Amino acid sequence: MGAEQYRPPLFSVAPMMDWTDNHYRTVARIISKHAWLYTEMLAAETIVHQQGDLDRFLAFSPEQHPIVLQIGGNNLDSIAKATQLANSYGYDEINLNCGCPSPKVAGHGCFGVRLMLDPKFVGEAMSVIAANTDVPVSVKCRIGLDDHDSYNELCDFIYKVSSLSPTKHFIIHSRKALLNGISPADNRRIPPLKYEYYYALLRDFPDLRFTINGGINCVDEVNAALREGAHGVMVGRAAYNYLWNTLAHVDSAIYGAPSSGLTRRQVLEQYQIYGDAVLGTFGNSRPNIRDLIKPLFGFFHSEPGNNLWKRRADAAFQMKNITVR
Questions:
Q1: Which stretches within 145-293 are classed as H helix?
Q2: CA geometry: angle at 108 spanning 59 and 45, to 5°?
Q3: Which residue ranges make up the annotated binding site for FMN?
Q4: Percent of the chain, pLDDT > 70?
Q5: What is the pTM of this model?
Q6: Which residues are catalytic?
Q7: Per-state percent for the chain, helix, strand, coil, to nearest 5
Q8: What pLDDT, in 10s, does the model give residues 138-161?
Q9: Are 120 and 160 in contact (CB under 8 A)?
């Protein structure tokens, strides 16, 4: 597989820890055939150390294409090995996380957004990834972190990474990160959006491709950004929390392609087939019913009865007599 076989990533769903797992991606792909999907970030060290159980972390169904594997890490040997181990799974692109502000990642882990302080290492890491795969590579980053938040510093990062490696695609979260102990949720809310940085990159690096991320929450806003010249738009929590309301319009409104024509009931019926097939397959009753239903909590967002659906579903999951069949 390769990225060139699919429509361009005008619309993509952001990699989100504990959210964009196999279950979410399965139902998302039933709804939209053209949205680009990303895995959760997988630490390179995890991939290397879980060689006996890689399917649990890396396997996905062929229907999920186009799909991007996002990895994180700060050890070149582990990054190289993780890339090699992922090759047989057939991802369409491999992305390096240079934007996560989580204390576990950017703090104790010393990767994620902290890598923006070392563009030379990121260039080397991207070269290592590219040398160990045949698919395109990309970087997801912030516009800066803490006091390292000037446009010139962002340009220095982009220039060095793209000069030292084959990286031609950058996904830009248009906020800086604050590494002073605030939560990842606050890092998506407190730092102001600076879209002007993103559009300046389009001007100053015409040979590169940039996807904008941050604060864009619906298809109308995606199309507005594309009209402004964005090469692509990445949507995060809105694509999860408002699953149907967002993804059901992507194919027709953004790609000009026919929609699937599926009703919500038909989507649920197809997803049930998947759920029945994978329930408990990894042992210890995982995935369980709660894992499988989690992506559907926002499926009826803004519809009458939505709150009742969520309450009853959540109450049902608390019942002790629900077992894996």
A1: 151-164, 184-187, 195-204, 219-227, 237-241, 243-247, 250-253, 264-278, 289-293
A2: 30
A3: 15-17, 70, 140, 173, 213-215, 236-237
A4: 94
A5: 0.93
A6: 100
A7: 45, 15, 40
A8: 999 999 999 999 999 999 999 999
A9: yes
